[in-house]
Amino acid sequence: MFFKKIIIITFLIFFPASMFANELPVPRWVSLNAEANMRKGPSTNASIMYRYQFEGYPMEILRQTETWRYVRDPMNGTEGWMNRILFNGARHIITANKEHSLGYKNADKSKIIAKLAFGVHGKILSCDSNWCYVSILNNEKVRKMYIEKKNLYGVYTHEIID
Q1: Residue 92 in contact with residue 124, Cβ under 8 Å?
Q2: What is the tens place of the pLDDT at every residue in 89-135?
Q3: What's 83's domain CATH number?
Q4: How much is the pTM?
Q5: DSSP for 105-143?
Q6: What is the rounded CA–CA span in Å between residue 68 and residue 44?
Q7: Do both 103 and 80 map to the same domain?
Q8: Phi, psi (deg, nearest 5) at residue 48
Q9: Helices (H), the chain
Q10: Number of separate domains in the chain
Q11: Is 162 a member of any domain?
């Protein structure tokens, strides 16, 4: 047991987690930790383009450096730079259908339980090849439903999420 700890500590010293940050696939979806600024360049001196004010907003990483991520806002397509510490791996979605997206009790579309406007925010619980099971907070109540992937920003059509 003692030797396992020594090996782990040695590994972490010589191979810090930041070393693997650039090994994650690009493009990929992430979510904002909290309030965040999108900038014109990869520097805190670069002009702020947008200020995001809610946790869990999905962003698509298109390019990356060790410290900075070049991202796209799924709602309006704006692209800019954000510091990597502003993101986490929790997966969130926003409804993408301009008319409305339907939430179903089951993935077989047997019962509609919600009609969702464009831009509704939710958290991914799981996704299969066509559907995502999500939780959406509405009037202090969490509602869980299935939504077709094609109607969501924040998940790729090929992704399976458990």
Answers
A1: yes
A2: 999 999 998 989 999 999 999 999 999 999 999 999 999 999 999 99
A3: 2.30.30.40
A4: 0.82
A5: SSTT---EEEEEPTT-EEEEEEE-SSEEEEEEEETTEEE
A6: 10
A7: no
A8: -85, 125
A9: 2-14
A10: 2
A11: no
